[in-house]
C-alpha cells in the first residue's frame, strides 16, 4: 500500500489491518476518529519514497499498551527482532538517540534511531532512523494508541505509519511489503504480550 501524495504530505489510500484488509480508506473501526488519525499521521513524502500504515486491535487497556509503545529505551519488550538497545544520548527528550541490535533473520545487525515525538496525552510516539547497516534510508514512523470498548471491555487500537526511501533496485511495492511485514510482527507481538499481561492482572484482581 503506497502513500497518496497531497501537496507534499502523504496519507495512505486505505486502512490495512494486521491480519485483514479493509478497502475504501474509511477506517477500520468506528472507535477511531479518522480525521484525528489523518492529523497525527502526516508524513512529508518526497520523490522515490513510499508510505503506508497498519492498524492492530488489542484486547487490553490503552494505558497498558501505551506503556510498551512509549519505552524508547526498551523496544525489545515487544519487538521480536530486537536483541538489545543502548541509549546513546538524552533521557527521553526529543532528540534522544538509541542504538538497536537486530537479531539474525533481517538484513541488518544495528540501527541507530532518534526519538522524534513522545506525547503521553495524545499517546503519540515517533522515531527516525539516522544510521545503521541496513537499507532503510530516511525511515520515519509514527505510532498512535487509541482506546476503544469491545463488548463492554476496554481495548486498544494501535495505528503505525511510516515513510522510507525506495532502495535502488527495488520497487515501491517491494519496499512497503518488507517494512509492513516487520511492523506486522511487532504489532502481533505487542498484542500477545499486552493481552497476556491484561489477563494476568485481571486474574490477580479477582
Automatic annotation (TrEMBL):
Protein name (database record): Abscisic acid receptor PYL9-like protein
Species this chain originates from: Rhynchospora pubera
Family: Belongs to the PYR/PYL/RCAR abscisic acid intracellular receptor family.
Entry-linked InterPro entries: Plant_def-hormone_signal, Polyketide_cyclase/dehydratase, START-like_dom_sf
Main location: cytoplasm
GO CC annotation, single: cytoplasm
A Pfam family the protein falls into: Polyketide_cyc2
Keywords per UniProt: Abscisic acid signaling pathway, Cytoplasm, Nucleus, Protein phosphatase inhibitor, Receptor
GO MF entry, a single one: signaling receptor activity
Subcellular location: Cytoplasm; Nucleus
Gene3D superfamilies: 3.30.530.20
GO biological process, one term: abscisic acid-activated signaling pathway
CDD domains, alphabetized: PYR_PYL_RCAR_like (cd07821)
Amino acid at each position: 500500500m503506497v502513500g497518496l501524495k497531497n501537496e507534499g504530505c502523504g496519507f495512505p489510500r486505505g486502512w490495512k489491518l494486521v491480519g485483514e484488509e479493509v478497502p475504501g480508506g474509511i477506517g477500520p473501526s468506528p472507535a477511531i476518529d479518522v480525521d484525528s488519525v489523518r492529523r497525527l499521521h502526516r508524513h512529508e513524502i518526497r520523490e522515490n519514497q513510499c508510505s503506508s500504515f497498519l492498524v492492530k486491535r488489542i484486547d487490553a487497556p490503552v494505558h497498558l499498551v501505551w506503556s510498551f509503545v512509549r519505552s524508547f529505551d526498551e523496544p525489545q519488550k515487544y519487538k521480536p527482532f530486537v536483541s538489545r538497545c543502548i541509549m546513546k544520548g538524552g533521557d527521553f527528550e526529543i532528540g534522544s538517540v538509541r542504538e538497536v541490535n537486530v537479531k539474525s533473520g533481517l538484513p541488518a545487525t544495528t540501527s541507530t534511531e532518534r526519538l522524534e515525538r513522545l506525547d503521553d496525552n495524545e499517546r503519540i510516539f515517533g522515531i527516525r532512523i539516522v544510521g545503521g547497516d541496513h537499507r532503510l534510508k530516511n525511515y520515519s514512523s509514527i505510532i498512535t494508541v487509541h482506546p476503544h470498548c469491545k463488548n463492554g471491555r476496554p481495548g486498544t487500537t494501535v495505528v503505525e505509519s511510516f515513510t522510507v526511501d525506495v532502495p535502488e533496485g527495488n520497487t515501491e511495492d517491494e519496499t512497503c511489503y518488507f517494512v509492513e511485514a516487520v511492523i506486522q510482527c511487532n504489532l502481533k507481538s505487542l498484542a500477545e504480550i499486552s493481552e497476556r499481561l491484561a489477563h494476568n492482572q485481571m486474574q490477580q484482581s479477582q
